[in-house]
Amino acid sequence: MLARRFHELDLLRFIAAASVVLFHYSVRGYALQELPPSAYASLAPVTKYGFLGVNLFFIISGFVILMTAARASVRRFAVSRFVRLYPAFWICCTATFAGSWLVARSGQGIPFRTYLLNMTMVSGLASVPPVDGVYWSLLVELKFYALVLLAMAFRQMGRLKILLGIWLGLSIVSLSRPLPVLSTWLVPEWAPYFIAGATMYLASQEGLSAYKGAVLATCYACAVAGLAKGLPQIEANLHMHLSLTAASGILAAFFLATLLVSTGATARLGSARWVLLGSLTYPIYLLHQRLGYWLLALGHGRANAHVVFWGVVAFVLGLAYLVTRAEGLVAPRLRRLLIGERDPGAMAAPAPCAVTPAAAVTPAVAEAAASSD
Questions:
Q1: Does pTM surpass 0.85?
Q2: Which of 44, 118, 318, 354 could form a disulfide with 10 if both were Cys (CB 3.0 to 4.6 A apart)?
Q3: What does the domain layout of the chain look like in residue ranges?
């Protein structure tokens, strides 16, 4: 029996990406004086909470990465993650690096050494500044992947419910009393989101039990506690008030929406047409901030503000589509090269989140989506 395709997650991912883009373009860039006054600053009362889109990404990642791991060998999982993350990242990182020299003044583009180290995606471990500010979340993702790989390598996937509970407990402890080394690799600040998503995946396979409900409730409580702790600093950076009640409500909506997907309650709403939206989210996220800031600043005062704003949004979407097409051409070849046709896991069940594309989706996009998180 074929596994159900959670097409709803593609839509959720696109919503998360859109919220982050609008947050950067109408709130953050303006507040930190990285952008001239925005014609869309009036959106701030709503878009100022768009940074929470990253939190939704982590919930979805917990769900889908666990699904991918459950269907693959250790080798196939590692290769699928590499193929999914790196080709698109290399393209987007190179585009941002090149863009920096096109708009830089007096040779102040991104240093070549910084660019090269960023291409590893783990430059943050060496305290190398990111080519783009959004790259910080990629290292968090990689640490989560490393934990999943450890569980797979030591054949502990059958004990996931217990392991997730232990991870959550250690994260709670380390937030109040940092644990050497563990605090770095357990990503305690973000662990509740990954754990919640992973628990929801287990619920989709086994049903929602009292234990899983308790884990989800604890994850949400930890998420709200983390918000309460971090919100004052975010307010200081943005120079505006943020309501903990509103932010907690948005997080509750994220948890509930993903939980409904896991239980099948939203299955009728799912559409294979959302595959394209889901496939665009990663390159949109990687490309939009620094390139978008440069283009918004360049267009300021030279054209109608609305044309500039939505023109930059359209440009980023178009560029993301081209990256997705390129990824769709490269990914299958790279996957075959790294896995090999004789690998017993090579015929494992396809794509977790969005496969079986609609006729309107091109083969390249479908291939990229088939390896998406």
A1: yes
A2: 354
A3: 8-370
